């Protein structure tokens, strides 16, 4: 290839890129949320909290949480559940106190503060919702419950 042709080819490259860009821009923009930006999409109603108390399914079940937990932060620095449920606060906040099992470390020693194994409350306690099972199961409580 001689020099002028080569220069011509090199000069064409940005033109090709630009036309590709213009083509991409002219394609219609697809919505990811399936609705107009100003159209509210309501949450799935099945996950609404159930009022009152739901019955435990078996005796040892961690009780379901009968109130919303949306606002309660749990992280390495703070656990807002404890601001009502810890034994030091439950009286004044009128909330059920954590049972003794929450103050036993894994060696069975009694502690004054929540055990590390019970720190992340919603590992075991979930808000009550009448939601379909994620995985089908045939669980039944033992007759001795
Ligand atoms: C503002 C105070 C407050 C905070 C914060 C709070 N709770 Fe409660 N909680 C209550 C009260 C009051 C009740 C009792 C409600 C009732 O009897 O209907 C309760 C009930 C419960 C119960 C049911 C206990 C039982 O014996 O059935 C569980 C479980 C529970 N809360 C877990 C949590 C978890 C987990 C968090 C944090 C994500 C939390 N709570 C944060 C006040 C609080
Ligand atoms: C490893 C699972 C687990 C974790 C984590 C856990 N709990 Fe529990 N919780 C249970 C079980 C099981 C019960 C019922 C049996 C019992 O009292 O030990 C219970 C009972 C309770 C009760 C009712 C106590 C009573 O005497 O009626 C409350 C309130 C409660 N938990 C709140 C909490 C809060 C708040 C946290 C976080 C600080 C938490 N739990 C962390 C398993 C757990």
Automatic annotation (TrEMBL):
Post-translational modification: Binds 2 heme C groups per subunit.
Signal peptide boundaries: none
Primary location: periplasm
Binding site for heme c 2: 102, 121, 124-125
Pfam families xrefs: NapB
Binding site for heme c 1: 67, 81, 84-85
Subunit relationships: Component of the periplasmic nitrate reductase NapAB complex composed of NapA and NapB.
Protein name according to UniProt: Periplasmic nitrate reductase, electron transfer subunit
Source organism: Ruegeria meonggei
């Amino acid at each position: 290839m001689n020099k002028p042709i080569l220069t011509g080819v090199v000069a064409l490259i940005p033109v090709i890129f630009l036309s590709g860009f213009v083509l991409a821009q002219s394609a219609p923009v697809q919505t990811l949320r399936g609705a107009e930006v100003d159209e509210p999409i309501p949450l799935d109603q099945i996950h609404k909290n159930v009022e009152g108390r739901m019955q435990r399914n078996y005796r040892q079940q961690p009780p379901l949480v009968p109130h919303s937990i949306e606002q309660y932060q749990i992280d390495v620095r703070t656990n807002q559940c404890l601001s009502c449920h810890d034994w030091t606060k439950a009286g004044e906040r009128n909330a059920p106190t954590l049972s003794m099992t929450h103050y036993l470390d894994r060696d069975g020693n009694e502690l004054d503060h929540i055990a590390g194994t019970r720190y992340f409350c919603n590992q075991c306690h979930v808000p009550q919702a009448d939601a379909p099972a994620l995985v089908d199961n045939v669980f039944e409580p033992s007759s001795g419950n």
